[in-house]
Amino acid sequence: MTVVQLQRGQSGSRGPTQDRSSLIAAIDVGSTKVCCLIAERKTVKSRAFGGERKSEIKVLGFGHQEARGIRGGAVVDLDDAERSIRLAVDAAERMSGKTAQNVYVNVSGGRPACTAYLAQLKTSGDQVSGEDISRVIDMAQRKIEPGKRVVLHTTPTEFALDQTRNVADPRGMFGDTLSVQLNAVSVERGPMRNLSMVIGRCHLDVAGFVIAPYAAGRSVLVDDELEMGVTCIDLGGETSCVSVFSGGNLVFADSVAMGGQHITMDIARGLSTPLVHAERMKTYHGSALPAVCDDREFISVPLVGENGTDTVNKIPRSMLTGIIQPRLEETFELIGDRLRKSGTASRAGRRVVITGGASQLTGVRELAASMLERQVRFGFPHPVTGMPDAARSPGFAVAAGLLNYALNPDQGTVAMPDVQSSRKQANGYFGRVGSWIKESF
Question: Is residue 435 very low, low, confident or very high in pLDDT (cuts 50, 70, 90)?
């Protein structure tokens, strides 16, 4: 196995000692790319008179690498996946001059599922206290039976006091019965353990795991959308994630095993052209909807395994559109079915936000609006100080969302013990050197 050497300082460590309270690191482990962001948390005061202090982040380092050993958001080759993560982290560390240790990691595989749990607590007509809220949430959490799955997020989505529903904050109010609806997001244990193992082999601690559709939503959605109800669709390389937000909370999350790479493969197979050229055709000439002039515009298509200009086909652009459109229609049809079966249609509103690398194809917005019968807009990551221009596109929405989550994390995030134990065994410079020798020889 080839091990990527990480940056070392003059003292023999991996760089300057990080301030755990101010340094934030996020790793987006996707099917087509691995991205690492290192940022610094700062407390600033609002310019308005009497403005309150708030936390902001400034990106110090950025690195991304082609994802290898990852398929459909799940690790399929430990060595290749480790190398991709190490290269991305090393690039971010060199750019920032800081050392990443505690990282937030996205989870895009493992077939995410959302389950609602209800709990009630008798209050004897007294005022509801913070302790009562904690007790009723704890009662709902005890009902969770993950089995062979791992719970990543638990979010109280709705409180009720007696017959009054949708109570935003019952603290201090009077009532006999306090109820809560708890939304639990879980994934399969196997893919989570494999991802944890890879992160541990890179000698990194996991500060928290974040489900990919949740991270994407926190990156591109605005406050009014989160409150009124919105559906966020992240069209990735090999998976497309969907999340529903209402009342400021995540109420549904799911994914379908279909993305931009499937479109590329369809083009390569349908036109008998190399994958690299199929990706270029999709990027520069691809469209989700036909145009009037498509039959008159021709594209050069080299044949796979052939050399020379005599083996180049000329096809109308309409043929390329005829390959792309059915795959996208199938993707949105699957997403629509998942949304209907989730029972969250009434809370999702009429708004859809599309993000992710595959969302940049021409005509995707119009096709999604037609298939889902809702208002659709593109989602770009919210501006972050120091973010490179290359990372401000929809393809990096999940990475930016991880930073947003790290700035204000939920209380229900689970850290896998596998990562912590493997990382503690390699603490210190000599521990990391010993681990490198053991892994390499």
Answer: low
pTM above 0.90, yes or no: no
Q: 274 is in which domain, residue-wise? A: 218-379
Please determine, for residue 52, whether its predicted confidence score (pLDDT) is greater than 80: no
Residue 95 counted as domain residue: no
- What was the pLDDT predicted at 225? 94
Query: pLDDT tens digits for 330-371?
Result: 999 999 999 999 888 778 889 999 999 999 999 999 999 999
Domain CATH for 147 = 3.30.1490.110
Q: Tally the domains of the chain.
A: 2
413 pairs with which residues across the strands? none
Same domain, 176 and 223: no
Do 141 and 229 fall within a single domain? no
Mean pLDDT of 177-194: 91
Digit-coded pLDDT (tens) for 295-319: 999 999 999 887 765 678 899 999 9
pLDDT at position 4, please? 40
Domain shared by 136 and 235, yes or no: no
Flag whether 374 is in a domain.
yes
Residue 399 lies inside a defined structural domain of this protein: no
CATH, residue 310: 3.30.420.40
| 113 backbone dihedrals φ, ψ, rounded to 5° | -145, 145
